[in-house]
Amino acid sequence: xxxxxxxxxxxxxxxxxxxxxxxxxxxxxxxxxxxxxxxxxxxxxxxxxxxxxxxxxxxxxxxxxxxxxxxxxxxxxxxxxxxxxxxxxxxxxxx
Length: 95
Prior knowledge:
This protein is mainly alpha-helical. Helices cover 43% and strands 0% of the residues. The protein has helices at residues 18-37, 55-71, 89-92. The two termini are 18 Å apart.
């Protein structure tokens, strides 16, 4: 989306907390944008997070994220949005 990001993250067996992961993610992406584009600030201080506890919810959330550009009128079909990326095979079964 032009003004926000949706991400589904699994920390697996990692000992890192979600808030620590988010801080690292924001720091590294800010550094990359600063270097590539000269943009100094790209993130808000807070973030909305939702913990997925039931696998059935995961599919619904993935479909919500996938269809966000369609709901906003950016594209007609979700697969036409060029910035959607799915990296894990486990997620692709919900597409």
